[in-house]
Design a protein that fits this description.
Largest sheet: 9 strands, mixed
CATH topology of the largest domain: D-amino Acid Aminotransferase, Chain A, domain 2
Structural class: alpha+beta
CATH class of the largest domain: Alpha Beta
Order of helices and strands: HEEHHEEEHEEEEHEEEEH
Radius of gyration: 19 Å
Number of helices: 6
Strand content: 25-35%
Distance between the termini: 36 Å
CATH architecture of the largest domain: Alpha-Beta Barrel
Number of strands: 13
Length: 258
Protein backbone atom coordinates (compact mmCIF):
# COMPACT_ATOMS: atom_id res chain seq x y z
CA UNK A 1 0.00 0.00 0.00
CA UNK A 2 1.39 3.39 -0.95
CA UNK A 3 0.22 7.00 -1.14
CA UNK A 4 1.17 9.20 -4.06
CA UNK A 5 2.88 12.38 -2.77
CA UNK A 6 0.59 14.38 -5.08
CA UNK A 7 -2.57 12.84 -3.57
CA UNK A 8 -4.98 15.60 -2.52
CA UNK A 9 -5.63 13.75 0.72
CA UNK A 10 -1.94 14.12 1.58
CA UNK A 11 -1.45 17.68 0.29
CA UNK A 12 -4.84 19.21 1.18
CA UNK A 13 -6.60 16.85 3.58
CA UNK A 14 -9.20 16.30 0.83
CA UNK A 15 -10.78 13.02 1.78
CA UNK A 16 -12.59 11.05 4.44
CA UNK A 17 -12.00 8.17 6.78
CA UNK A 18 -13.97 5.78 8.96
CA UNK A 19 -12.72 3.96 12.04
CA UNK A 20 -14.54 0.68 12.53
CA UNK A 21 -14.35 -1.70 15.48
CA UNK A 22 -13.40 -5.29 14.67
CA UNK A 23 -14.64 -7.41 17.56
CA UNK A 24 -15.70 -11.04 17.85
CA UNK A 25 -14.93 -11.59 14.17
CA UNK A 26 -17.22 -8.83 12.89
CA UNK A 27 -16.89 -5.28 11.65
CA UNK A 28 -19.21 -3.38 13.98
CA UNK A 29 -21.87 -1.19 12.30
CA UNK A 30 -20.18 -1.71 8.95
CA UNK A 31 -23.13 -0.57 6.83
CA UNK A 32 -23.64 2.59 8.92
CA UNK A 33 -19.97 3.51 8.49
CA UNK A 34 -20.12 2.98 4.72
CA UNK A 35 -23.36 4.98 4.50
CA UNK A 36 -21.67 7.90 6.27
CA UNK A 37 -18.67 7.61 3.99
CA UNK A 38 -20.97 7.86 0.98
CA UNK A 39 -22.78 10.92 2.41
CA UNK A 40 -19.47 12.66 3.10
CA UNK A 41 -18.21 11.85 -0.39
CA UNK A 42 -21.16 13.69 -1.90
CA UNK A 43 -20.32 16.79 0.14
CA UNK A 44 -16.66 16.68 -0.94
CA UNK A 45 -17.46 16.16 -4.62
CA UNK A 46 -16.19 12.59 -4.66
CA UNK A 47 -17.87 9.43 -5.93
CA UNK A 48 -18.70 6.98 -3.13
CA UNK A 49 -16.25 4.11 -2.69
CA UNK A 50 -17.19 0.64 -3.86
CA UNK A 51 -18.48 -1.27 -0.83
CA UNK A 52 -16.98 -4.58 -1.87
CA UNK A 53 -13.60 -2.94 -2.41
CA UNK A 54 -13.84 -1.37 1.07
CA UNK A 55 -14.63 -4.73 2.63
CA UNK A 56 -11.78 -6.41 0.81
CA UNK A 57 -9.38 -3.65 1.90
CA UNK A 58 -10.51 -3.91 5.53
CA UNK A 59 -10.12 -7.69 5.57
CA UNK A 60 -6.69 -7.47 3.93
CA UNK A 61 -5.63 -4.92 6.57
CA UNK A 62 -6.79 -7.24 9.36
CA UNK A 63 -4.86 -10.12 7.85
CA UNK A 64 -1.73 -7.97 7.55
CA UNK A 65 -2.13 -7.02 11.23
CA UNK A 66 -2.10 -10.68 12.24
CA UNK A 67 -5.89 -11.16 12.52
CA UNK A 68 -6.20 -9.70 16.05
CA UNK A 69 -9.20 -10.52 18.22
CA UNK A 70 -10.03 -6.83 18.64
CA UNK A 71 -8.83 -4.09 16.33
CA UNK A 72 -9.39 -0.58 15.02
CA UNK A 73 -9.85 -0.73 11.27
CA UNK A 74 -9.40 2.54 9.41
CA UNK A 75 -10.74 2.92 5.86
CA UNK A 76 -9.44 6.00 4.01
CA UNK A 77 -11.10 7.48 0.92
CA UNK A 78 -8.73 10.12 -0.42
CA UNK A 79 -9.43 12.45 -3.35
CA UNK A 80 -6.37 11.08 -5.13
CA UNK A 81 -4.11 12.76 -7.67
CA UNK A 82 -5.69 15.48 -9.76
CA UNK A 83 -3.95 18.65 -10.78
CA UNK A 84 -2.17 21.29 -8.73
CA UNK A 85 -3.83 23.82 -6.46
CA UNK A 86 -7.25 23.94 -4.84
CA UNK A 87 -9.59 23.42 -7.78
CA UNK A 88 -11.37 20.09 -7.90
CA UNK A 89 -10.29 17.92 -10.83
CA UNK A 90 -12.95 17.45 -13.51
CA UNK A 91 -12.74 13.70 -13.02
CA UNK A 92 -11.75 12.73 -9.48
CA UNK A 93 -9.65 9.60 -9.10
CA UNK A 94 -10.02 8.73 -5.40
CA UNK A 95 -7.69 6.30 -3.68
CA UNK A 96 -8.82 3.66 -1.20
CA UNK A 97 -6.51 2.48 1.57
CA UNK A 98 -7.09 0.63 4.84
CA UNK A 99 -5.12 -0.15 7.97
CA UNK A 100 -5.79 -2.20 11.09
CA UNK A 101 -4.25 -2.11 14.54
CA UNK A 102 -4.84 -4.39 17.50
CA UNK A 103 -6.44 -2.64 20.48
CA UNK A 104 -7.26 -3.60 24.03
CA UNK A 105 -10.62 -3.47 25.83
CA UNK A 106 -12.62 -0.22 25.84
CA UNK A 107 -11.13 2.66 27.79
CA UNK A 108 -12.39 3.30 31.31
CA UNK A 109 -14.08 6.50 32.52
CA UNK A 110 -12.60 9.75 31.21
CA UNK A 111 -11.49 13.02 32.76
CA UNK A 112 -12.37 15.96 30.49
CA UNK A 113 -10.93 19.43 30.16
CA UNK A 114 -12.28 22.26 28.00
CA UNK A 115 -9.96 23.01 25.09
CA UNK A 116 -9.14 26.51 23.91
CA UNK A 117 -9.36 25.30 20.31
CA UNK A 118 -12.82 25.87 18.85
CA UNK A 119 -14.84 23.69 16.52
CA UNK A 120 -15.71 25.61 13.35
CA UNK A 121 -19.46 25.01 13.22
CA UNK A 122 -19.71 27.26 10.15
CA UNK A 123 -17.69 24.79 8.05
CA UNK A 124 -19.41 21.79 6.42
CA UNK A 125 -16.23 19.86 7.20
CA UNK A 126 -17.04 20.05 10.93
CA UNK A 127 -19.83 17.54 10.35
CA UNK A 128 -17.65 15.15 8.35
CA UNK A 129 -14.88 12.72 9.26
CA UNK A 130 -12.30 14.32 6.97
CA UNK A 131 -8.59 13.63 6.62
CA UNK A 132 -7.93 17.17 7.94
CA UNK A 133 -8.11 16.45 11.70
CA UNK A 134 -5.47 18.80 13.05
CA UNK A 135 -7.80 20.80 15.33
CA UNK A 136 -8.80 17.56 17.04
CA UNK A 137 -5.16 16.47 17.33
CA UNK A 138 -4.21 19.78 18.97
CA UNK A 139 -7.24 19.73 21.29
CA UNK A 140 -6.37 16.21 22.46
CA UNK A 141 -2.73 17.24 23.01
CA UNK A 142 -3.91 20.21 25.08
CA UNK A 143 -6.07 17.90 27.21
CA UNK A 144 -3.20 15.46 27.75
CA UNK A 145 -0.90 18.30 28.77
CA UNK A 146 -3.51 19.32 31.36
CA UNK A 147 -3.61 15.78 32.77
CA UNK A 148 -6.98 14.90 31.26
CA UNK A 149 -7.95 12.00 29.00
CA UNK A 150 -10.01 13.90 26.47
CA UNK A 151 -10.82 17.44 25.35
CA UNK A 152 -14.23 19.07 25.38
CA UNK A 153 -14.50 21.32 22.31
CA UNK A 154 -16.79 24.33 22.04
CA UNK A 155 -17.81 25.90 18.74
CA UNK A 156 -17.31 29.44 17.48
CA UNK A 157 -20.44 30.55 19.39
CA UNK A 158 -19.12 29.15 22.66
CA UNK A 159 -21.60 26.27 22.58
CA UNK A 160 -20.80 22.68 23.52
CA UNK A 161 -19.87 20.70 20.39
CA UNK A 162 -17.98 17.46 20.97
CA UNK A 163 -14.85 15.85 22.33
CA UNK A 164 -11.71 15.55 20.23
CA UNK A 165 -12.68 12.00 19.21
CA UNK A 166 -16.17 11.47 20.58
CA UNK A 167 -19.69 12.78 20.81
CA UNK A 168 -20.80 14.33 24.11
CA UNK A 169 -23.91 13.62 26.20
CA UNK A 170 -25.13 14.78 29.60
CA UNK A 171 -28.04 13.85 31.87
CA UNK A 172 -30.36 16.34 33.53
CA UNK A 173 -33.72 15.63 35.23
CA UNK A 174 -33.80 12.03 33.91
CA UNK A 175 -33.42 13.26 30.33
CA UNK A 176 -30.44 12.96 27.99
CA UNK A 177 -28.97 15.88 26.04
CA UNK A 178 -26.45 16.08 23.22
CA UNK A 179 -25.34 18.93 20.94
CA UNK A 180 -27.29 19.28 17.70
CA UNK A 181 -25.43 18.46 14.49
CA UNK A 182 -25.46 22.10 13.38
CA UNK A 183 -23.24 22.93 16.38
CA UNK A 184 -20.40 21.50 14.28
CA UNK A 185 -20.89 17.91 15.31
CA UNK A 186 -20.10 14.66 13.54
CA UNK A 187 -23.14 12.40 13.18
CA UNK A 188 -21.50 9.67 15.23
CA UNK A 189 -22.49 6.06 14.68
CA UNK A 190 -22.81 5.35 18.40
CA UNK A 191 -24.44 8.76 18.89
CA UNK A 192 -27.29 7.53 16.69
CA UNK A 193 -27.38 4.26 18.61
CA UNK A 194 -27.73 6.16 21.91
CA UNK A 195 -30.63 8.24 20.59
CA UNK A 196 -32.33 5.05 19.36
CA UNK A 197 -31.70 3.34 22.70
CA UNK A 198 -33.25 6.27 24.57
CA UNK A 199 -36.38 5.92 22.44
CA UNK A 200 -36.58 2.19 23.26
CA UNK A 201 -36.05 2.86 26.98
CA UNK A 202 -38.64 5.63 27.09
CA UNK A 203 -35.98 8.20 28.04
CA UNK A 204 -36.39 11.73 26.67
CA UNK A 205 -33.44 12.66 24.44
CA UNK A 206 -32.84 16.18 23.18
CA UNK A 207 -30.46 17.49 20.49
CA UNK A 208 -29.76 21.02 21.63
CA UNK A 209 -27.63 24.15 21.34
CA UNK A 210 -26.20 24.65 24.81
CA UNK A 211 -23.45 26.56 26.52
CA UNK A 212 -21.22 24.89 29.11
CA UNK A 213 -23.26 26.46 31.94
CA UNK A 214 -26.22 24.29 30.95
CA UNK A 215 -24.38 21.10 31.89
CA UNK A 216 -22.46 22.21 34.99
CA UNK A 217 -22.42 19.33 37.47
CA UNK A 218 -24.48 17.06 35.25
CA UNK A 219 -23.46 13.42 34.72
CA UNK A 220 -21.77 13.09 31.34
CA UNK A 221 -20.69 10.39 28.94
CA UNK A 222 -18.86 10.18 25.62
CA UNK A 223 -19.45 7.90 22.65
CA UNK A 224 -17.40 6.69 19.75
CA UNK A 225 -17.11 3.54 17.68
CA UNK A 226 -14.18 2.03 19.59
CA UNK A 227 -15.17 2.72 23.20
CA UNK A 228 -18.97 2.66 22.95
CA UNK A 229 -20.45 4.56 25.90
CA UNK A 230 -17.72 6.01 28.16
CA UNK A 231 -18.66 7.75 31.44
CA UNK A 232 -16.99 11.05 32.35
CA UNK A 233 -15.58 11.36 35.87
CA UNK A 234 -14.66 15.04 35.86
CA UNK A 235 -14.77 18.22 33.80
CA UNK A 236 -12.07 20.86 34.25
CA UNK A 237 -11.04 19.25 37.52
CA UNK A 238 -14.55 19.16 39.03
CA UNK A 239 -15.82 15.69 39.91
CA UNK A 240 -19.11 14.70 38.30
CA UNK A 241 -21.85 12.53 39.68
CA UNK A 242 -22.80 9.34 37.89
CA UNK A 243 -26.26 8.47 36.63
CA UNK A 244 -27.86 5.01 36.37
CA UNK A 245 -29.10 6.15 32.96
CA UNK A 246 -25.53 5.97 31.63
CA UNK A 247 -25.22 2.29 32.51
CA UNK A 248 -28.71 1.54 31.18
CA UNK A 249 -27.94 3.23 27.88
CA UNK A 250 -24.55 1.49 27.61
CA UNK A 251 -26.29 -1.84 28.19
CA UNK A 252 -28.89 -1.08 25.53
CA UNK A 253 -26.32 0.11 22.98
CA UNK A 254 -23.72 -2.63 23.41
CA UNK A 255 -25.29 -5.62 25.17
CA UNK A 256 -22.69 -7.99 23.71
CA UNK A 257 -19.83 -6.01 25.30
CA UNK A 258 -21.16 -5.31 28.81
Amino acid sequence: MSIDPADRGFTLGHGLFETILWDDRRLDHWDAHLDRLARGSAVLGLPPPDRIACRNAAEAALLAAGSPHRAAVRVNWSAGVGGRGLDLPATPRPALTATAAAIGPPDGPAALTTATIRRNDRSPASRLKTLAYLDNVLARAEARAAGADEALMLNTEGEVACAAAANVFWVRDEAVFTPALDCGVLDGIVRAEVLAACARLGVAAHEVRARPAHMVGAPMFLTNSLTGVRPVTSLDGVRLETSPLTAAIAHAVSPARR
